[in-house]
Amino acid sequence: MKAFKSLDGLVCPLDRANVDTDAIIPKQFLKSIKRSGFGPYLFDEWRYADVGEPDMDCSKRPLKKDFVLNQLRYKGAQILLARDNFGCGSSREHAAWAIEDYGFRVVIAPSFADIFFNNCYKNGVLPIVASGEIVDQLFRECAAQKGYRLRVDLETQTVRNPAGEWFQFDITPHRKHCLLEGLDEIGLTLKHADEIRAFEERHKAAQPWLFA
Amino acid sequence: MSGKTLYDKLWESHLVREEEDGTCLLYIDRHLMHEVTSPQAFEGLRLAARRAWRPDSVVATPDHNTPTDHWDDPDGGLRDPISRQQVETLDANIREFGALVYFPFKHQNQGILHVVGPETGATLPGMTVVCGDSHTSTHGAFGALAFGIGTSEVEHVLATQTLVGKRSRRMLIRVNGKVGPGVTAKDIALAIIGRIGTAGGTGYAVEFGGEAIRALSMEGRMTLCNMTIEGGARAGLVAPDEKTFAYLKGRRFAPQGANWDKAVAWWKTLKSDADARFDKVVDIDAAGIEPQVTWGTSPEQVLPVGSRVPDPAREADPVKRNSIERALAYMGLAAGTRIEDIRIDKVFIGSCTNARIEDLRAAARFVKGRRKADSVKLALVVPGSGQVKRQAEAEGLDRIFLDAGFEWREPGCSMCLAMNADRLEPGERCASTSNRNFEGRQGAGGRTHLVSPEMAAAAAIAGHFVDIRKQGKPGA
Lengths: 212, 476
Ligand code: SF4
Known about the structure:
Chain A is built from eight helices and seven strands; from the N terminus they run βααβαβαβαβββααα.
């Protein structure tokens, strides 16, 4: 997994609540057996005027000009600013893969759906929960200033705006450690293989039918 | 000291270790796999030269991509080359890594994983059940801790038989009293989501209790737990009882002989203690629940069938007003339209929410002796599994549907998410028994209204939504 330490990035605002994973990456793209290449299809139905199919050359497709991702001022954005319940719906990790592949490394929202939230961490994307008031303020500032950037620092768990105001966000020590170091979680867990095996033996003795 | 909730008991009985910050390593008993969210996980194992920890925990079947017709053609109907590649990749991965049981495409027991797991007895009370699919919450109907995971976690479970996570908060949703006639588990689920919102359960594991829940059949409990994720909670739970045991007895992977008695004794302890504390309790009056229809593009945009579509001008909160406007525009509905005046183009009876035998019986009971409205272009019935299909055919349900002008298909996810050829065309409106009405869910530009199987059947006959309670006796 890619490590994440800090980022000074352009912000792209997506002003809708309940953005679901079908909107983030529509189902036809889930037929891929790869983990990469989803970025061009991120928000496909909102971004393009035609119906997207896998393996299309997106550089030639007609764009919906109004959609934020298509506006020049947000080109190259690495921070996505979103509303409540971002990433609701299915468990498809393709949603996190698409966000990461597009170039976003941080998503800031008042709340996230649980599975999507988890999936972000596994892919070096930092989801940040901020209060509704703060998110409102960020949306206002972002609309008012072209080239609006935020500075995100994982070590100190802070987000700083251009005026130097900052807020702090929560993250569990375990996730922070994995993200800072870019650790392979499976490798970490396998360090406890003996404990897993011992648990398995006890479990099997108590409920043998689970091991039929 | 207060007692333990069912969730606590399930969590603790699978706890391998716990870090100081509350991060836990949780043992996983059952791992369900389908073709869409697993290929990258197997690829990851291969790249790291890792083996599957316990292949006999795996139950697998392709369901999302598989076609529901033309099975007798030489290509088996699986014409889309990339869908075919995904299904064949699952075949190859199971061959290489192993499984307790695999139902390949067109196997007589193939079907939607969340239908296949319970009907084979592969889902048991007291288990931890995971799958790279958010509707894994379905299996909580058996008193199993069951939740959806992402593909990285699928790989983690394959490699270590565990997951890393923290405890959820606990919510109890009590549905008190009895529901009225014509009100199903689907209506209870939709009414709950309408009440708590699609983010209401975020961060929680939900236990369902109360008289109306105990009165539900296992099928009904599965419908309810299935849609817990639409209320934001990854896991929904119903404590097992005699109905659970009766459902499981004799099924292929259920315990036998002395183990059965031992298992039942343990399962009987799987309930929240009388003095257990929940972080949140929601009480709902069952008698107040009416047949539900969603009007928007989120499952929380739902109303009783007798209502009118909302008017955004009356909403004070700007973010909410904006989502109502957007939803109405997408759905092609004017504010204030009576739900019963909404005409539909297609009907879909299927999905892991409502494609079990009981759902098909309920729909067939209403359809019997009637005909689909001419204005309805397609009324599709897709059984949840091969087993459900055989049972339905043995009872003659297929004939009832066919005689009424419905189509009777092979099992799979089908038009629930339209990854195969079954889909809505842009602008088409559908009465659907599935679980998600998101934009484009059933096909780009398609408009979905979520309803119970009875309500979908009645809409197919009338050509628009109707209040099932006002219809003549089913089958009359
Ligand atoms: S039926 Fe629909 S919700 Fe259920 S597993 Fe299939 S695609 Fe997902």
